[in-house]
Amino acid sequence: NHAMDAGGSGARATRAALQRYSLPFTGTGEGGDVAAAEWHATTSVRASSGASVKLAWLACSYASNTEAGATNGIPDSKKQVLNCGRDRTFVLDTIGKLAKTHDAVIVTPHWGVEYEVTASRPQKELAQAFVDAGAKIVFGNHPHVPQPYEKLVSRNDAHEAFVIRSIGNFVSNQVQGISS
Question: What's the rounded Cα separation, in Å, for the pair 65 and 83?
Answer without folding.
Answer: 7
